[in-house]
Write the structure tokens for this entry.
Amino acid sequence: MDWRERQRTLSRTTGDAVLEAYYNEDLDRLSSLLQSSPDYITGEASVLRGTPLCILASREDRSDVLELLYRLGDNSLKHMVYKDSSKKNCLHTAIRAKALAATQYLLTIKFDPNEPDEDIQMPLHAACVVEEPRLIKILMAAGADCNLPDEAGNMPLHQACQDGQVVISRLLMKGTADIDARGANDRTPLHYAALAQSLPLMKLLMERGASVRKYDDDRHTPMDIVLRMGNQNTLSGLADYFASMVPEDCPSINALIECEHFNRVIQVLDAIDDDMENPVESPVLTAHHKTVKLSDEEKQETINRIASDDRIDFIEFRRVVQLIAANNLSSMLIEADCIPNFVNMVRKLVLFREDVELLTTIMFGTTLWPKIQKCLEDSIEIMYENCSEIGSTGMVALMHKTFIDKERGTWRPDLMTKFFNNRLKLPLIEPIEDQNRKFLRDPTGTLTVWSVMSGRFHLTEELLKSEQFDILPNGLFCVALLRKLQVISGIPRPTKKTMEQVADRVESICMTLVRSVNTIDTSEKKMVAINFLRQRLPAYGDLTCMGLASHGQSDSFMVMQAVQGGVDREWFKRLYHTSSFYREFLIALGLIPFNPLLFVLLRKLWITTCHLEGSFPGETAQTDRIEAVVISSDDDIDDPEDSETEADEVVAEEKTEKEQDVTSSSLPTDPNNSAKPDDKTGVMWKETILHESGRPMGGNFFLNVIGLYARTMFGFYFTPAVKFHYHILAHIIFIGFFSYVVVVKFEYQISMAEIIVYLFLLGFFLEELHEINHARINGSVLNHITDGWNILDTIGLTLSFVGFCMRMPMLKNTATDSYKYVFTDMYYWWTRFLLQMACLVYWMRLLYVSTVMETLGPKLKMISVMITRDFVPFLIMLAIMMFGFGIVIHSMLFPNGYYMGNPTQTSGADIFQSMFKITFYAMVGEYSSDLVSGKDCADSKKCPHPLGQVIVPNIIMTIYIIIVSVLLLNLIVASFSKTVDEIDKKSMAMWQFERYDLLEEFMVRSPLPPPLSILGELARWVVTIWETLRHEEIVLRRRTFSKHRIIYFLTLQAFAMRGQRAKLVGEVELGDPARLIPQMMRKVKRMQGRLSNIRARLAEGRSKRG
């Protein structure tokens, strides 16, 4: 039984004829009854528990009854203005009951759509409460004002956002005058959307121009609320939204930075993380700065003191800064146009003096620092040219010697970058013309780099906190500077110690930032930080953050899980998400060139793992178009799938009308980004063939399939891990042939095996030339030459080349069936010796395979450190002992090189050989007792001196054995043990450096191993000659770029740093106990400062109470 039947039953039970006619829908009888009983029309008589008939009809959506009442009331509202027991009139009652027809009719007969109820709630507010969009449309069509507040001060839009109603909010926005209108607690609609955790509603509001910089009564922005709610999915959704606002046609990071849409996104992120201009918490002043409240006249006097530009000494300026911070005078200072004068004072009295405490007060105690920083960096040349030496760091003298023009005394940034490249072995930094960019700014023009180069090291940590978007790359670059500068002669030892401590703290800040981003990252495998760490940064010599960390020997940073994941991701590329066994299986299939089975498996793999490549919601895949099918290994070939690009497309269901009704926007919308995954509808994967823009390719289908096949296979073969496997296999084949030649097949006439060896060597030589050329382009030739593996390559190629040149004249020798020439021909023997040594070098070169193995890689690095640190000094001491005692022993036994009774004098070579045998083999227990004691010397006529054969074995040899066997050998064993203990915890980081170097090497190498690489080099030469003759560039492969890497990381960084910049403190990692004591002292000092602050406040409170 429905409600209407129940009401009919009730009407029959009560015997109310009016109520019975009402529920029987008998309008004629109801009309006659109402005319006979006018009290029902006037409302004086009630039905159904004291409810007037007009209220009952409004509640039950009986527009026919309302029309009857209106007609019987002489077409007037005088009989329909009655209210129910809760003081709601007919219109409010109809809205609360979602009575569409009744609401429509009541508005037709001129009910006021803006009349509040007893709670001062407008009809639109009531419609928002019942969540009925059709009521909103009806009321707005009737003239309802969307800008009228309720009793709490909230407009209808605030109410809709509070309930998370997207459709209703979209309707109300059309009539709302101010999208950032203030409501209860001074909150905007975006505040309420954040409280409701409604991501679609937040997107809609920001599209319509809602500001993220508005503060409520609690000093919280909408993004502060998002952080407080702790919904990480909302953060990821906002990052995806910001990425969707930037068009897909950004081919490079420079194009992205110059894109107007990206700059608007940067402005939004700047507003999210604006702790410098709008601190989340009030600044805490130190105990040295007592809080002094000023009157209005005193405030103006303080401002005038700065505006007057009079000479202010340090003590007075310190007091002025404290007054500005304590009385919030920043806005008054800006309004008085005193920033230029204040900047000059900060430059001279804070930065040049290296006053960290005063700098911290200005940065976090006032809201002036962004403007101060902008002015200082716009005139950074003044900072370099006018700063003087502080203490005895030697940095200013170095600066004037290297990149300050001696004649004009001006700063030369070109000389500075050359100094970085030539002396510090850092990548060549290209100058950046745009000084107004906020992301990837020129590092040479930043205050952080100035603080390092001017010797103001203690300012570096604080200045780094003020970097808005470049904290990570700028910090890692400063770490590299601080550690590279320590090798410069003329820098005092205490300065080097300070530089290392500052480098540790700055590195810790970078690690803290990455950890903070990972904390709020919801992508699978925490790919946001990993992908950003892989991104090449043009402002920093086209290095990645991993490359900057490698240059700066940032061992703690390199062992972070995100960095290791980034190295693995670059190493395996698309194969990263597969098991090791399956990877090896695919690589084995790739031994058959362009294997069709491999293509099928790769397509299946890449389709199933496409969502893991970027791990970004809504990120669609693209592909790079191969302009010419020429194998190349240029460094600008960053792998065909390098920014998660491939011929797979996410195709989602079409958006509904309510999701498409977006007109004006404060952020640009992407017309090509209409299809996105929807959590409610699911996603469908559809494989297509795409242009670079991501749209399906037209033209011949067969050609498109061939293009897809080529892109897939080239993407596989250009993977560094795949290159490494094939190069290792080729190297093993090479040393197999080489060993066979030098052992059994090196004859006068050249054999086929020997020809194969020389072809391999030619391939190695061409690869080495290509790597040197690549290093020359990047300005890192010195790094390349001094690398240990490259030194080994050079030795091997040199020995092979000399051996080959010596071998060529032997071809004219006639073949002989006699084997005696291998013993009698000394020219042949020395040629064979050189090739044997080259073969040994290439066997040693095979050790680099251990670089990618976690079990052997750290051990190999540990061995190399022990050799350079312990074994080489041991050999020096051992050589001194051996030669010293050897000379004494031989001179005592055989004076002047004569044996007793033998007139023939021993040659110098024989003397040296005899000395070496006696002293060296004595270390391993062979004491040459027969020779020393003279036993059986009569037959050989090699008898020693009579006194020597007594003194040497009993005294000299005893002392030598004690020194060498007991002391030196045990010393080297103990040193090895100590070194192993010291570097055991660091060996993983050291191995990571080796892994990254190997990664960079195989990013450059050709996918064709020697000797097939000869073909690739020939093809590259042909292309170079063609470009030279035609004066046009042929794009062999194009590096692809993903905007999501940048925007996602910057978004999460903005949220992670919101309100946390002042708390960024460099901490030494626990894995390095040798550096913990200075860190603990810093902590104790900070705690003492806090205690002094508390005591000062307590004393101030007691004085006020007294």
